[in-house]
Amino acid sequence: MRRRLLVLVAATTTLVLVAFLVPLALLVRGVAADRAVQAATVEAQSLTSLVATTDRALLALAVEQVDATSRFDVTVFLPDGDPLGAPAERSPLVELAERGTSASTDASGGREIVFAVDGPAGSVGVIRTFVPDDELSRGVGRAWLLLAGLGVALLLVSLVVADRLARRLVRSATELAAVSHRLGRGELDARADPTAPGELGVVAGALNGLARRITDLLREERETIADLSHRVRTPLTTLRMEADAVPDADQSERLVAGVDAVNRAVTEVIQQARSRGPDGVASDAADVVRERVAFWAVLAEDTDRALTVAVAPGPLPVALSRSDLEACVDALLGNVFAHTPNGTPFAVRLRPRPEGGARLVIADQGPGLPEGHTTGMLRRGVSGSGSSGLGLDIVRRTAERSGGGLRLERSPGGGLTVVVDLGARPA
To answer: Are residues 312 and 411 in the same domain?
Structure first.
């Protein structure tokens, strides 16, 4: 950006200087030529009265004196004799002047000027002066050098000013980009300089306002989650005490495990709310899926559901915490029990992905989804079956956070197949 601004300013300034200095240089040359011609004309006209009134001897002496002190060649042509003063040929312009016409013209090496003078007894004399090219251009070279120096100085000044402005603009833009990157990394205390020039200052002010708004929203979210966690822990404690009091030991153990799982999920939510940066955690998908399937297998047996499990031997590391992966698996299995009738068989398969991570597939033989709902079900809050619609959205967001994804397919024998790709933790 800085280089482009300098090139733009240099090109614009050069065009302006050329448009200004070239006519001025031509005018200087014309003025110098006119000045030389005017000086030669004045000197030549000073001899007019002598040519008309003085005899030849005195005229010759006067012409030689003028020619010796003048910067120009002065010659007087008389009708009855050789020319006086500087040697010169009788040119066509002189012949024209002998017929009574004064004129001037460009000649080889300079400019020729002639004056017709009425002499004694009606005769006509001619005064010729020659201005060489050196006199016509006297001082022009120095003036052009001064103009060129002035142009270069103006160009340098414009580049210096443009460079200072470009530095400030580039520095402001770079700082603005750096602040946006810091905000993207979670440094919410980063602020841009609102005094940046022009529109950059407006953008900096808007970015600062956005950062403050994000900070406020995160603070409100953390406070809300913290408040919610405190409200949930009390009934969870009560449920755990009641679960411990259940006479059936197996049933009591299952209830206590469920309450503990909810308690862990609440704790995980609080920890995530307090720290928004990437945690870099990983868990063994094979171990988590086996444990959660074993937990739900009891309920599957109670509801007469045939369960097929095919979990590849671990470890299968994925870029998710254990609690997140447990919540993901529980949401998928809970949907099977919630949205299919008792006795519906289902299968859970887990295998590694070629690019790393794992692929979790849960397929049931239930009624499946209505036509056209396989995409809409992935939107937050969309269910179509009377539920909140958040389960699949949680699974989708969890999978995408690991670098994977979620898709819904129809099972070959009817029903629904959920395919969850879980990304591996980067090395």
So the answer is: yes
Helix residue spans in 46-139 (DSSP H) = 48-53, 56-69, 92-98, 133-136
**Contact indicator for 46, 90 with CB cutoff of 8 Å:** no
CB atoms within 10 A of CB 238: 11
- Please check whether residue 291 lies inside any domain of the structure: yes
CB atoms within 10 A of CB 114: 24
Taking the C-alpha atoms of 222, 227, 231 and 237 in order, what is their torsion angle to the nearest 10 degrees?
60
Q: Which residue reads 């809970």 in tokens?
A: 334
Q: What is the CATH number of the domain that holds 339?
A: 3.30.565.10
Kindly report whether the global pTM for this prediction surpasses the value 0.85.
no
- Total domains, the chain: 4
The tens digit of pLDDT for each residue in 60-92 reads 888 888 888 888 888 888 877 778 888 888 888
Tokens of 173: 């833009």
Q: Identify whether residues 327 and 290 lie together within a single domain.
A: yes
User: On the CB side of 411, how many CA atoms lie within 13 Å of its CA?
Assistant: 20
For 261-319, the DSSP string reads: HHHHHHHHHHHHHH--S-----EEHHHHHHHHHHHHHHHHHHTT--EEEEE--S--EES
Task: Name the residue among 361, 375, 347, 352 with its Cα closest to residue 423.
Answer: 352
Asked if residue 114 is part of any domain, the answer here is: yes
Retrieve residue 204's tokens: 């900096």
> Is residue 423 helix, strand or coil?
coil
**Residue 347, helix vs strand vs coil:** strand
345-384 tens-digit pLDDT: 999 999 998 888 899 999 998 887 666 555 444 443 444 4
**Domain encompassing residue 390:** 281-422
Statement to judge: residues 254 and 292 lie in one domain: no
Contact 13, 155 (CB under 8 A): yes
Same domain, 353 and 397: yes
Cβ-Cβ contacts under 8 Å for 396 (sequence gap 6 or more)? 378, 405, 406
Contact, 421 vs 405, CB < 8 A?
yes
- Report how far residue 309's alpha carbon sits from residue 292's, in angstroms, rounded to the nearest whole number: 11
175 and 237 within one domain: no
Give the C-alpha separation, 122 to 115, whole Å.
16
